[in-house]
Description:
- By secondary structure, this protein is α/β, with parallel strands linked by helices.
- Helix content is about 20%, strand content about 35%.
- It has one domain (about 1-95): CATH 3.30.1330.20.
- It has helices at about 1-10, 35-50; strands at about 20-30, 55-60, 70-75, 85-90, 95.
Amino acid sequence: MSAACLAITNPLMAMPISEALKALIIITVSLDGDLDDVGEAVELIANAVHPDSAIIFGAFFEEEIEPEAHTSMGFSGLYYPKGITCGVSKGSVTVIS
């Protein structure tokens, strides 16, 4: 869940995700992880976007993964002032709006 928290609070995001109308969430966890961990991460992100957002998520389990979880997210339906784009990659967190 810490990877999800890092993703939604990344200070390099050009715009807040609270108004995102669509979200795609992909979480990769180690074999030691479980679906409860995935559910908590998705719930954390779902609570950060617009209440009416359409959310699609998937989870992958990998034998060898460092750190223990990766979260990738994509958002749409955000208003960007002309000329602003956002694409941030930091460690195991990838955010593309």
